[in-house]
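I have been asked to look over a protein record a colleague put together. What it holds is a sequence and that sequence's fold in C-alpha cell form. Please read both lines and tell me whether the C-alpha cells look consistent with the sequence. I do not need a full report, just your reasoning and any doubts. This is what I was given:
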Amino acid sequence: MFSPYVDDTLLSLVANSDDLHRFTVYHTLGNKEDDVKATDGRILDFVTMNEQLHAALDGTLKHYQYKVIEAGNHTWFTWAPELPHALEYHWS
C-alpha cells in the first residue's frame, strides 16, 4: 500500500476482522503527506490517517512491513522507488 486513504470505515473493518493474519502487506508513507489536496478539493492529512492504520495493523498481520519515507510526498515520484521493495517483500 502506498499511502492509502484511510477513513473510519476502513479502521472499523480492520478492528473487527479476525482473519487479517493471512495477508502480507507492505505499507509506505511519505513524511510530508500531511497537507494533500484531494481530487474533491479537501486538504487531507495522510500522515495521521496512515499512522492510525499502522497502529491498527501492527501486530495483527504475520507479514507486515511499514516504512516512512523521509521527504516523501503523496506522488508517484515518492512511491516508484519503493515498488521493487514491495514486490520483493510480497514474493519472498
